[in-house]
Design a protein that fits this description.
345 residues; 10 helices; 9-stranded mixed beta sheet; globular; 4-stranded antiparallel beta sheet
């Protein structure tokens, strides 16, 4: 198994901040900001699936849209490592960014609203082909037919309208559209949350199959902890606009370190009716992203809260646990015997 130093980096995110202004009054003056992303840093390796989980409103979808520049960020960098060069996507103008939009695509949460109901599937899928230089109706129909077959649909379906398909079929069409320009990175934003369980399993297996065939890299955003365990190589846990824990999937489930992640995972239902599991119930509500708490943003709900947690913000630090790098942002780690890994090792 390759170490992180041996893996090839595709995307490197550093201190990413995305704030939305809060405006009030007749003159719509800015009185504050919703800190949807407040200093997010992580790395995505080529060929992996990075899962992104957390409560609703923690900033998962905003992160995906910010990486694609569908939402404007205020600070940070998003380095795309393309062959021998690294490019900060946030510094590119729109014309230069166009070349990278071909390499980075997204599958949206709602498969119906992401398709124009007035267009046939062919019309919806030919637009990205026109944008990126694939012209001619015959060539486009051939390519779209091949894409539909790749997602286990019949080629003649391209002449139908979105309302003629089920939710699972529409999501397959969304996946086909994302693959139409042969991307390297696909961001799946709650791509299976609107589907029933049986169709969900089919779409997940399809995504895994396409990943192997096309050498894709995924960022898989979801709130379903069972789904993210099944599909992900590594998992990042977000809370109030920050990543609080990041580790290989099995390592995260076997050695859950952050108190928030422990509470989150304790809510996973068990299939065994006789098995007993202690549920960790968090007190209070998620703080407002407009005015987050000082120090550790989780401290008002944490059962292990110390005085230090109220004043000093913990940094996301790497620790070596059973041979893997396990990143945690928690002052409790200083009281444990885990070995901290120096940056650059």
């Amino acid at each position: 198994m390759k170490t992180e130093q041996q893996k090839e980096i595709l995307l490197e995110v550093n201190n990413l901040k995305t704030w939305f202004p809060v405006k009030k009054g007749v003159f719509r003056s800015t009185v504050g900001h919703v800190k949807a992303l407040d200093g997010v840093s992580f790395t995505v390796y080529k060929g992996e699936t990075l899962g992104l989980v957390g409560e609703s409103g923690c900033g998962k979808s905003t992160l995906g849209k910010t990486l694609l520049r569908l939402v404007k960020s205020q600070q940070g960098s998003v380095l795309y490592h393309d062959e021998a060069e690294s490019v900060d996507l946030l510094k590119l103008d729109e014309k230069s960014m166009g070349a990278y939009r071909k390499k980075m695509q997204i599958v949206f949460q709602d498969p119906y609203s992401s398709l124009n109901p007035a267009f046939t599937i062919f019309t919806s899928l030919k637009d990205p082909l026109n944008r990126f230089g694939i012209h001619g109706k015959a060539a486009q129909r051939k390519l779209i037919g091949d894409l539909l077959e790749a997602v286990n649909m019949r080629p003649e379906y391209m002449d139908r309208y979105p309302h003629e398909f089920s939710g699972g079929q529409r999501q397959r069409i969304g996946i086909a559209r994302a693959l139409s320009v042969d991307p390297q990175l696909v961001i799946c934003d709650e791509a299976v949350s609107a589907l029933d369980v049986s169709i969900r399993a089919q779409v997940l297996n399809l995504l895994l199959e396409l990943k192997e065939k096309r050498n894709l890299t995924y960022i898989f955003i979801t709130h379903d902890l069972s789904v993210v365990e099944y599909i992900s190589d590594r998992i990042a846990v977000m809370y109030l606009g920050k990543i609080v824990e990041l580790a290989p999937t099995q390592g995260l489930y076997d050695h859950t370190m952050h108190p928030y992640t422990q509470a989150l995972f304790s809510a996973i239902p068990l299939a065994d009716l006789d098995a007993k599991k202690q549920r960790i119930v968090l007190e209070g509500d998620v703080p407002s992203p407009v005015n987050p708490p000082s120090g550790c943003s989780f401290h008002p709900r944490c059962r292990y809260c110390m005085d230090r947690c109220r004043t000093e913000e913990p940094l996301l630090q790497p620790y070596e646990i059973e041979g893997n790098l396990h990143y945690v942002a928690c002052h409790l780690m200083d009281t444990k015997s885990y070995q901290k890994v120096k940056r650059g090792e």
